[in-house]
Amino acid sequence: MADNRNVAPVAADGALRIVAVHDEASLDDFVALPWAVHARHPLWVPPLRAQDKALLTPGKHPFWNAARRELFLAVRGNEIAGRIAAIVDDNHNAYARERCGVFGFFECRNDRPAAHALFAAARDWLAGQGMNFMRGPINPSTNYTCGMLVDGFDCPPAIMMPWNPPYYAELAESWHLRKEQDLFAYLIERERLDLPQWLRDEVARIKAEGRFTRRISSRATLAEDIRIMLDLYRESWAQNWGFTPLSPAEADELVGELKTYLQPDFFVLFFHRGIPAAGMVALPDFNPLLKRLNGRIGITAPWHFWKARKEMQGSYRIILFGIKPEFRLMGLPLLLLDYMLEQAAAHPDFKRVEGSWVLEDNTAIDDLIEDFSGRITKRYRLYRRDIAEQV
User: Which residues of the chain have pLDDT under 50?
Assistant: First the structure.
């Protein structure tokens, strides 16, 4: 256990304490906690510890150039019962014109007093920062992982999507956190790819018009294509609920990460008279490899990759999907999803692709994915509570 300085007693249970994370050892405890909570569950996917630690460290990750945070641990006796981050994202608040405080990186044993103490600690810190309400879980913005799983607990998570046990929602809602928005995960499977004839005819008509050209990415153009895709993402999502624009430094960080993992033929851009109009990126699902790595990349990583390769084969997640507003009514959503189906047909090992996440109130995209045989398999929830609310 790390040093327990800055400890405050909580409620009537003298065994429960809240520890502010202000040293390296406590930060290591914060990063390590998910293993203690979830390690025995077969669907939990261990994150990379070094990556999580860097993301949480101001000065090491560019997100914190315009944000600040406080981390808390709930300690019961000599055991860590839970963790939470309280975050103020000045970039988001300036863009959205609100005073939103974020709670994120929440993990907790099935311990209601500990969870309530963590939520209260985050609220109190956010109140001291002048925030009006708290929203989460967001880790640390909607450009990263976010949402609490509330339905679909028997389905394995896709790459870069969270997983949590069912009791998390009870912990949140018993502290009077209320639903603000749900996020859907859609699954499209090879054996269900059976488009209605009217949709096939519409796709054929749009292709015949020839208004758009497409470019499939390649290793030679990958870095440039990712930057184009991030610009499309920013423009197409600008008016969506919860959107936060990536800073230039964050975009640079993301370009570096995606260059390592992307499979170019599952990355397509569409152009209208040479102007980028739409794009889509699907990432291979590396979660079987992450489970084998168990949080650390060492000298055995190539062996783990070799062992996991068959489990990873044929599974993808659409992580970026964007269409500039002026082109949305010209059939581009159909062309993007048709391209994914085209790649599925071209790859004999293709099994499934998850589209996640999609806002529940983005009914146009929800309906379109369902037309392309997608079905909702998981639902994630973002909660909200006013800072001044007394219950």
Answer: 1-13
* One domain for residues 114 and 252: no
Report whether 147 contacts 357 (CB < 8 A). yes
Alpha-carbon separation of residue 244 from 35, 68, 238, 339 (angstroms): 30, 15, 8, 28
Unique residue bearing structure tokens 């590396």: 286
Angstrom distance (rounded) from CA 323 to CA 333: 8
Domain harbouring 101, CATH code: 3.40.630.30
Range of the domain at 289: 188-379
Rg (CA), the chain: 22
Span 232-255, pLDDT tens digits: 999 999 999 999 999 999 999 998
- The per-residue DSSP string of 242-294 comes to T--PPPHHHHHHHHHHHHHH--GGGEEEEEETTEEEEEEEEEE--HHHHHHHT
Contact 41, 19 (CB under 8 A): no
Q: How far is CA 46 from CA 248, 292, 296, 354, in A?
A: 29, 9, 9, 20
Q: What whole-number distance in Å separates Cα of residue 352 and Cα of residue 343?
A: 11
Domain for residue 117, yes or no?
yes
221 shares its domain with 118: no
